[in-house]
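Review box. Two proteins, two foldings.
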Amino acid sequence: MMEAVEEAMGARTEAFASPLNVHKNTTKTYYSQYPRDSVFGAVGSAWEAQWEQLGAYQFNPEYTAEDLYRALKKAINATKTAEPVLGVGIYPTYAKGPYRKLLNKHMGYRVHERLEVKEGQFTFLPPDHWMQGDRDPQ
């Protein structure tokens, strides 16, 4: 999926990548969750980046309620610019996640498309799933 987005939209910047999982086709830049990853090639912290200046980018935050909401809010706020911007978020479909209300509120306005992968076709696990099991954290 990431390759298709990169090819079709020119999204060669990735937010919330790490030195171990940055996509092989991310040719422009990548931002990490952690500023310390700059020693491995990250441009800096995804939270501190100016997303409205990234052009086309992908973002895939940690699957915690707080990070999912905060990243979606940042992406939506980045669209409030005169310059064209396209953010493609990779999100789990947690039924009760707070980010779902924000997503639904902006559908058709700041959020134009939503593609949901059916359950069982992709596994989204929160970063601490090993402590709480493989269940919807919401």
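Next protein.
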Amino acid sequence: MDSFQTEWYELQTLGKIKPDGIQVVPDAYTQNQNLQTELNSACRALEKSQVQCVKAQEECIKVRKERDYHRMHHKRLEQEKECLVNEIQRIKKRCSSYEPSMRQLQEKYKTAMKEKMLTKLELERTAGQIVGLQSTLCSIDPKQIVVGQKTESYDKEPHYMSPIGKTSISIRKSDERETSQIHARDSEFPSDSIVNPFLDKELRAAPNLLTVEGFRLSNVIQAHEMAVSKLALHPVQQMLATASDDQTWKLWSLQPDVQLVMTGRGHSDWISDVDFHPLGNKLATASGDSTVRIWDLGAEECILKLADHTQPVWGCAWHFSGDFIASCSMDSTTKIWDLNSERCRTTLRGHADSVNSVMFLPYSNIVGTCSADKSISLWDVRTGLCAQTFYGHHHSCNDVTFSLQGDLMASCDSYGVVKLWDARAATTLATVDVGPYPANNLAFDPSGSVLAIASNDETVKMYHVKTEKVSVQEGHEDAVQAVLFDGAAGEYLLSGSYDATVRIWS
């Protein structure tokens, strides 16, 4: 070792050994330890790889099973699809074979309805003539008949005074029944000489209603705890009545700020409609409890309950005289109530399904109804006869309304189809499809140039009659149930929705 160190020192002194080339001689024990550490790491990595490999194999087996299951399921679905396609084709062929028969049946149904109405009118006319002849004959003294200057006496009743079988008996009984129904407090219907005061006026739509922007949302009223079903504006003051599924109606003041004035409770089920008396001192409500209630706004109480309907009442409407009110019900009838005698004067029967809406033609004795039987009818409330029936909808009709001048009538159905009718000529003027969602309610602006449509797709649609264009007002969070223009100038629009709010658009 000493010789090595001496020689190393000499070589280092002579500069033959460079410091950069000097390396540490590894120790055998240290090298073995490093190799053992690397071996242990490699073994652990191998074990992990084996575990992952086993998991991958299990996952692969699971995926293969799922693949086989889905492949079988796909084959089964293809077979079912093929069966359904064949079944649909078979049903289409069968339906196509039924179409001629359906068209014939529809034509026969329309013809039968027209013949029915004509027969009914002829029957009523004949019955009236027979009653008139019977009363004339009864007024003649059977004991004394003057022929020229000779007078003859009869001890027996002549043949023309004797009953003519069952017909005479039935007519006398019906005459006695009608006489017994006459009430001393019954109101008289106004004559037809009354003229609609808006016929001679030139009504124009609000300027902002005809612009491209249209109405915009200006206010939101959290009106009820449940859906708002109908709206009505006071005829004189800036006040709004709302009806709701929470069994209450509320009265709101709109100016200067929106404030709750009154809450009405008394119905035992949802309230479907609300309408102000022409003078504004009373309010009528229709409900699912099969009743119509009249409320005195001054006394803040119910003063009359009309309960002749057998099923829920969908709508109510005041006659312009304020003495009568019409109501429509799920029992397929419409009733005309006399508020003075507090009784039902006439029951209008003719619809084959639920009557969903009722409205009086402005300043007339004609009332319009629409039904789930897909038809709209106009009735003369004095005689109780159907004056005209409109056909054209293919689904249940939800609402019918008239323009302020009374020349236009609009109706909508459960598939979003809206029809515009000429109420005088009984013809279709336009058909617009705003579906596939149901159209729930309609309202003309005072000029009759714009029709608001409450839709189930959370929007209010505005149909412009002249241009036939449709604009959309968005803002509600659920289906819109009611729409209403202000009665003065149509400067703002109100809408009620299932989201329990009333929104004001201006």
